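User: quick one, sequence for these C-alpha cells?
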C-alpha cells in the first residue's frame, strides 16, 4: 500500500516500504554504473544488502556509520530481501551507534581459486571503491590509495564460499604486507606479481576460516591452516600435480 512501516531487519518482507535504523557493516565494489553504492547494513536482528541507485542522487553512506533510512523499498532476489534506496528515500545520519548482530560461521576447505581484484589494488579516497584503471565509478579519475586484499574461493567438496580477506588477514596467511606488496610491484613494474605470489602461497592449501556470511561472500575474521605445515605442503603439491 506504499505506507512506510518502522521495522527491524529481521521483520522485513518483500514488497514493504520501510523505515529502519541500521549500521553500514560493509561496502562492496559496484558492478554496475546504475548503482551509486552497495553493501550491507545491519541491526541487532540481522543484516541486509542495500543498493543506492545512481538516479537517487543521495549522499553516500560511510562504512561503520549508523543511519535512519526512511522510505526504502524491499525487493527479493534468490529468496533474499534487498533494501533499495531511491529518490523517495531519506537517509539521516544517527549520533548513536546501532548494534549489529554477530553472524559468524566456520568453514574448512581448500583454496581452489584466487579471483581478479586480488593483490595490490587502488581504492577511491572518497568512497573506498576499487578503482578501474585509475577511475572511480562515482568520483571519476582520482589519486587512489593502495590496499591489499585477497578474493578467493574455498571448497570443501560439497559447497564453496567466496572469501574476502583484508590486508591484515592477507599478511597473516602470506607474509606479504602492504609495503612489501608495493615494493614487489615497483621492482617488477607490474602490480600483478603480487596476485601471482599470493596464488603461489595459498592455492591448494587447506584452511579453516571464521567469518560473516554475506550471501555467497564471507568476510574473513580469522583464518588458519587446517593441517600441520608438512602435511599442508604435501596436500598442496598433490593438488598442484593433479591440476597439471
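Assistant:
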Amino acid at each position: 500500500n506504499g505506507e512506510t512501516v518502522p521495522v527491524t531487519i529481521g521483520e522485513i518482507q518483500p514488497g514493504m516500504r520501510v523505515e529502519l535504523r541500521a549500521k553500514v557493516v560493509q561496502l562492496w565494489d559496484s558492478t554496475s554504473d546504475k548503482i551509486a553504492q552497495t553493501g550491507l547494513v545491519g541491526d541487532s536482528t540481522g543484516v541486509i544488502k542495500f543498493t543506492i541507485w545512481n538516479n537517487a542522487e543521495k549522499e553516500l553512506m560511510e562504512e561503520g556509520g549508523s543511519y535512519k533510512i526512511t522510505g526504502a523499498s524491499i525487493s527479493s532476489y534468490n529468496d533474499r530481501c534487498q533494501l533499495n534506496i531511491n529518490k523517495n528515500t531519506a537517509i539521516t545520519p544517527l549520533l548513536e551507534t546501532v548494534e549489529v548482530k554477530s553472524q559468524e560461521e566456520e568453514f574448512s576447505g581448500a583454496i581452489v581459486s584466487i579471483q581478479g581484484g586480488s593483490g595490490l589494488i587502488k581504492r577511491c579516497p572518497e568512497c573506498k571503491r576499487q578503482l578501474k584503471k585509475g577511475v572511480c565509478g562515482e568520483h571519476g579519475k582520482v589519486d587512489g590509495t593502495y590496499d591489499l586484499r585477497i578474493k578467493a574461493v574455498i571448497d570443501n567438496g560439497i559447497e564453496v564460499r567466496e572469501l574476502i580477506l583484508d590486508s591484515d588477514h592477507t599478511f597473516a596467511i602470506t607474509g606479504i604486507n602492504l609495503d612489501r606488496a608495493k615494493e614487489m610491484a615497483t621492482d617488477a613494474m607490474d602490480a600483478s606479481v603480487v596476485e601471482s605470489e599470493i596464488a603461489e602461497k595459498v592455492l591448494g592449501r587447506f584452511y579453516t576460516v571464521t567469518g560473516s556470511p554475506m550471501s555467497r561472500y564471507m568476510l574473513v575474521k580469522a583464518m588458519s591452516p587446517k593441517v600441520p605445515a608438512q602435511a599442508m605442503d604435501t596436500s598442496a603439491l598433490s593438488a598442484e600435480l593433479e591440476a597439471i
